[in-house]
Specification:
Layout (H helix, E strand, L loop, with lengths): L8 H11 L13 H6 L2 H17 L8 H17 L6 H11 L2 H10 L1 H16 L11 H15 L2 H11 L5 H11 L2 H12 L3 H13 L6 H33 L6 E10 L14 E10 L2 E10 L3 H4 L3 H11 L7 E4 L6 E4 H5 L12 E4 L13 H8 L2 H13 L8 H9 L4 H4 L1 H10 L1 E2 L1 H11 L1
Parallel strand pairs: 3-6, 6-7
Antiparallel strand pairs: 1-2, 2-3, 4-5
Helix pairs in contact: 1-22, 3-4, 4-18, 5-12, 6-11, 7-8, 7-10, 7-11, 8-9, 9-10, 13-22
Amino acid sequence: MPAPAPTDPDAALLAALRAAPRRTRLPSLPADPQAAGRAAPDLALATAIEIQRASLAASQPAPAWAAPLFVGALAALVETALAPVGGDPAFQALLLRRQAPVLDEFLALHAQLRADQRRVRTELDRFAHPAKHDALAATGLATALAHAHQCARAGDWAALRDALAALHPLADPPLRHALDALAQSPALARLERLQALQAHATVRRLQALHAARGPLAGTDAAAAQGRASARVGRQAEAEVAEVFDAMAEVLNGHAATGTTWRAVRGLRLPAGFPGVLSGAKDEWDIALVVFAHDAARVALLGEVKASPAAAVPDLPRLLSGLRRLALAQPGMRYRFASEHGPIDLPGEALRALRPRGGALPERVVYCCNAPPEAQPPPLSAAARALLLGEAETLEFALRHADAGRADPAPLQSLWEGLASRPRLRPVLQQFETARIVRDAMLRPQDLLDTVRERL
């Protein structure tokens, strides 16, 4: 029996991309009004929104039952979000802000908290840092300076102002000038106002709601959470890179003489590349690059995400980045930086990555090692937040909270707004966006296993 013909590695990779399981793929939406009406609010809402999107795309009116489904599901979603136990603390905080304008002042001051603290403490340290008054021994001035410094370290800004006033009669003219400058500092005034607002019951309620949904922006806890997320992201990239290295090794075992496959991390667009950045992705997490006869091309481009939900808001940037790559000029070579050194890619190879409409090319994938969700969310967190943040929704929620019930009819304008309000376009596209992302998302080990099966 003759030996089997060698398998082309690129053909095997392409076949594997088509065959590899998509573990995070979205299930189908309910197909009829009865099933949709029995669904949970988020599923019913996603169904109605997708019907509206598909109808608009086909230039056809949506079926008559879709609008009542949307209105009823959104009203039910609001009622669920308002529940004291198991409700949505972010939505409840938004309603609280609408009822108490002082909360906007509190949040604006809180956003400047860390910068104002640094500013005041830096100014105070110019004359009250312990190292600056060691020579004063145990004098009254030394004690007063130490007290002022302790107030600032403790974040007691009202006490700091009192301490500055107590220092005034003990100070010489240069120190008095510094005391006056700090006492008149807008940063200190903002910190005092913030401290006073924190005693308000409404502010304490807002802080409790924010604590329930996660740390408030600008806090040490939020910074720690950000660092932890970054660590998770780096770990995910390292795991994917390891699998891509193994895939390159497998493909090299079947490559023609003079052809080399290599996994490349951190491909960065060269300066002067055609087009404008404008929010487009300009660095690519991981790629399989084929080098042959002094030429190179991207056989697979991967974006690494720690979870499926993290990929959905990334899709517009990814598509914009691919469209920019497609502006490469035929016959030109572009030198991309990478973690493995510079790589020259021809314009023709980059143009081949052009997306078709809103879909990703099959050689562009999202890589995710997270376990599949038991039930993928039919309504994205971003779409939910946009709908709950609209004026009609908030007014309905306030009336419902006041009276225990409210007429949902005014929510009909949001159904109509899906077709006309630019800010609601992400809501209209939310299921289609999630479908595109999840159809392109795979577990790298699954792809590697499928490549091995094809070779």
